[in-house]
Q: What sequence folds into this?
């Protein structure tokens, strides 16, 4: 068995999908940063809970060009100050000519040794059932983890572990590496949240979209979140 390593050269290759059999892993790396074994130090990006979906309806006449961030699982683009976010709350006003058309981000710029942004689609498909009443719980996530950045398992450096030395199947010694069991008294009543003092604002969802809705207070939250 061998591993084939390839590099994305430009944004023309930046629209990506997870492999159906997990045969492909994506990593963000600097070609000039290697570890003592000659391997690239990088961050690997992997799907986790519920993260294998993208927009079901392609070429929707309702969405138009307003949801081009939802056509793939993840994207890689060169970082630009003129492209701070993948969508905008006003996109729904004119779907065929949205304020932010994510498809225009992919204009062939180089990804080789450039500052890049990774956009991850955390959309999901959920078929409701009676257990969803009255609250629906659906989860989607990814894993972002160092790759070839550490010299070994970091858990080996902690004192919070125990080694049992056996002699003829019997524990002769338990080594705790200097860790001690905590001993103290604490009033757990102090941890009770004061829910009766909690306050919050209540918003009414309005359709069609109205300009005084809560998103206008912070329009930067629209669309996908980028990982610079």
A:
């Amino acid at each position: 068995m061998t591993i084939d390593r390839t590099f994305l050269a430009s944004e023309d290759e930046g629209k990506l999908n997870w492999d159906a059999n997990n045969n492909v892993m994506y990593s963000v790396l600097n070609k000039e940063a290697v570890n003592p074994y000659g391997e690239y130090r990088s961050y690997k990006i992997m799907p986790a809970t519920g993260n294998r979906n993208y927009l079901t309806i392609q070429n929707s006449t309702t969405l138009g060009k307003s949801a081009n961030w939802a056509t793939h699982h993840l994207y890689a683009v060169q970082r630009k100050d003129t492209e701070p976010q993948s969508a905008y709350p006003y996109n729904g006003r004119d779907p065929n000519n949205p304020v932010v058309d994510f498809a225009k981000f992919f204009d062939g710029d180089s990804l080789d040794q450039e500052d890049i942004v990774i956009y991850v689609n955390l959309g999901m498909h959920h078929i409701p059932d009676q257990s969803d009443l009255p609250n629906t719980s659906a989860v989607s996530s990814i894993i972002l983890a160092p790759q070839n950045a550490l010299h070994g398992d970091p858990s080996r450096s902690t004192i919070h572990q125990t080694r049992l030395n056996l002699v003829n199947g019997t524990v002769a010694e338990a080594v705790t590496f200097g860790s001690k069991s905590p001993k103290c008294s604490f009033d757990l009543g102090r941890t009770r949240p004061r829910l009766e003092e909690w306050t919050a604002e209540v918003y009414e969802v309005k359709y069609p979209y109205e300009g005084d809705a809560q998103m206008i207070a912070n329009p930067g939250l629209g669309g996908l979140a980028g990982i610079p």
User: Anything to note?
Assistant: The longest strand covers residues 26-34.
